[in-house]
Amino acid sequence: MKFLTFKEPARVLFVAAEAAPFVKVGGLASVMDSLPRALRDIGCDARVMIPKYLPIEGKYKLSTVLEDIQVPTGNTEGPSHFICNVKKFTPKAPSDPVTTYFLENQEYYEKRSNVYGYADDPIRWALLSRGIIEFLRINKEWHPDVIVACDWQAGLIVNYLKTEYRDDPTVNKIATIFSIHNLSYQGMFDHSFVQEMDRDDGHSPVPAFESERLNKINSMRRGIMYADIITTVSPTYAREILTPEYGQLLDGLLRERRNVLAGILNGIDYSIWNPQNDPYIMYPYSKDDIVLRSRNKAVLQERFGLENDKNAFVIGIASRLTRQKGFDLLMPIADIIMQELPVQIAIVGTGEADLMGFFRNLETKYPRRVAAHLSFDAILPHVIFAGADAALMPSQFEPCGLTQMEALRMGAVPIVRETGGLADTVKDYDPDKETGTGFTFEKFDSSSLMIALIRAVENFRNKKDWANIVRRGMLENFSWEESARKYIDVFARASELHSRELAKKKE
Ligand code: GLC
User: Fold this and answer.
1) What is the best residue among 182, 248, 416 to mutate for testing ligand 1's pocket, by most ligand atoms within 8 Å of CB?
2) Which residues line ligand 1 (CB under 6 A)?
3) Which of 393, 402, 316 lies closest to 29 in space, CA to CA?
4) C-alpha–C-alpha distance, residues 15 and 52, integer Å
5) How many domains does the chain have?
6) Are 456 and 369 part of one and the same domain?
7) pLDDT 10s digits, 374-388
């Protein structure tokens, strides 16, 4: 297919629930920071829009773009409109994030200090979608050619644009991309428990904000159904989600739309992840002097209260502690590992109570060999990856995963399950060919993980070969540049498909 190119730099608006540095819960926020920057670097006018949560304005200087935007609620009993304002962050320095818009509403965002987890979330996300469309209808200072709606929280944007607003000339020329960062969250409910009869087929109009039915809408499905193009964050995940095993009950729909589905690997921000110049690590190093990592290992051990032992195989974990990440595989084998292998484990992250409890118990049972910081921390992952020998990510599924790339960049050797973005970024070590950047395993079970861990520990004993694995990993290139170019192609393709659809409608 020949791609349309934009006459002027493409104007692209990313919409998500979170975007670093303003607000960050998971990897999505990092991507919302670094991908638009990379696009800006290659001449695309990429901007971001998120809700304005409570802590943001105290930390960043924002200007007002529009006030008193009337957002229709569709309600028959409650208020017919909600009022929103839009504020804006404008970059001053090249290192600043791209222009970012914030949808402001007292009740639904301003009073909330968290991003997710409120009973009225369906209204909060419907308001985000509809509020942004109403903003774009009247905003004079900027207008996007393409919207990239990320994950279910932004799915209704695509739905509204293709239904309620399809004949509105102020917004109906905007092409839409729906970007899947994690297919397992689809709406307010756990989709795997919804009876077939109750499943949202995606065809009914979006219910009024006051309606109970809004809770049952599968916004992930609707994003996939209505978008001009669907993207996800790695080529392997794009293939996996076409299968029942990974498709989270949407594989049938995804197979129908596979010709407009693209998997583009995320990158990481090389200005944040650079061991030669990292404000959070004590001893800067590069691939040519990785012996310096041993000093950072001592710092890590000290900071986490682990025994100062240079021969210990230090495994770092920096992750959300959820089922997806596969740490429950450690549960049945943790004691054997701790008793049979010379390992230490340093953990940072927060998440599900039983996983946090598991790591807390392990720490109590093996003091000075296991240390867990069970809260979100933006700095400790740098300390961990600069000093740890390995980084563990045994994910059950992984749309992309950023930490394995960060670990590789810092010289911590990833031990990962071969799935999604992990399969695309970590190559299994082959001692005969002297290739590979990590240790991978295929089956999602504890014994496969165990075997990978034993292989890693065994090979760690051979310092020279290990140093080569570390160096090869550090040499990999996970910068955004190439992926950003692929996005530009996708924007052009979405615009082309969208204009064709508009033309057809006119006939
Ligand atoms: C989600 C996915 C993760 C991905 C990130 C950014 O958090 O679980 O795999 O790297 O989004 O796309």
Assistant:
1) 182
2) 26-28, 31, 181-182, 233, 266, 398-402, 421
3) 402
4) 13
5) 2
6) yes
7) 999 999 999 999 999
